[in-house]
Amino acid sequence: MRRAGPTLHHRDVFTRLASTPSVRVTRRVHDQYTRPLEVTDRVVDAQQDAPAYAFALPNRTATPATAGASR
Length: 71
Fold this sequence. Notes:
It comes from Streptomyces caelestis. This is UbiC transcription regulator-associated domain-containing protein. There is one protein chain. The chain has strands spanning 9-16, 22-30, 36-45. The protein is mainly beta. It has a domain at 9-45. Strands 1-2-3 form a 3-stranded antiparallel β-sheet, with no helix packed on it. A hairpin with a 5-residue loop joins strand 2 (22-30) and strand 3 (36-45). The protein is elongated, with a radius of gyration of 19 Å. The mean pLDDT is 77.
């Protein structure tokens, strides 16, 4: 069974810009009901910069598993 709460969907699109060393990075984030939560549009100069993404999971309280316990 899934836990309650929003389910986020990310889509990143990298597009090379014509006749320049730049890349356009478009990120779209929506929830399980396809409601837009974030739209980010960046242009990165590929000669000076590199797009770097860091992903993290939300903090969860660690609960030790016990033998025979069901979740």
